[in-house]
Design brief:
With 139 residues, the chain is an alpha+beta fold. It contains two helices and eight strands, in the order αβββββββαβ.
Length: 139
């Protein structure tokens, strides 16, 4: 909440995402000085879109919000269903995963480790891309 409250004062950098989804995407990085505090990745597809927000404290990933929306029909843009997940991190470890109903995902499920690795890797890749001079990040 504190990061979003101060979003207007952060320096914003926009990059195009190529190869991350079928219909393209966009990355917006928010910098407080030289430190990245937030990354927003939007992915566009034929049957829907996804949004991922990555939050950082002292350059470490602390939270990921993911919202996946499904269109009524291909490329309609009319959202008929959305799912949200929240992922909480500490010391590069996924410590809690809340599903669409706000309920915790069991700590022992196979997806837990996969999601941890996936979001840590994406956060590193997007942070490096946000700092690069390239206008487009390739998958």
């Amino acid at each position: 909440a504190a990061i979003n409250k101060h979003a207007a004062r952060y320096r914003k950098v926009k990059k195009e995402l190529s190869g991350f989804s079928l219909e393209g995407g966009e990355l917006v990085a928010y910098f407080d000085g030289s430190a990245i505090v937030k990354l927003v990745a939007k992915y566009y597809g034929e049957s829907g879109q996804a949004l991922e927000e990555y939050y950082f404290k002292k350059e470490q990933l602390i939270f990921v919000f993911r919202k996946e929306s499904t269109y009524s029909r291909p490329l309609s843009g009319k959202v008929v269903h959305s799912d949200e997940d929240r992922f909480y991190f500490a010391n590069d470890r996924l410590i809690q995963w809340l599903n669409n109903r706000g309920r915790p995902a069991p700590n022992g499920i196979a997806d837990y480790q996969q999601k941890q690795n996936e979001y840590l890797e994406s956060a590193r890749k997007f942070a490096a891309g946000a700092r690069s001079k390239a206008a487009t990040l390739e998958y």
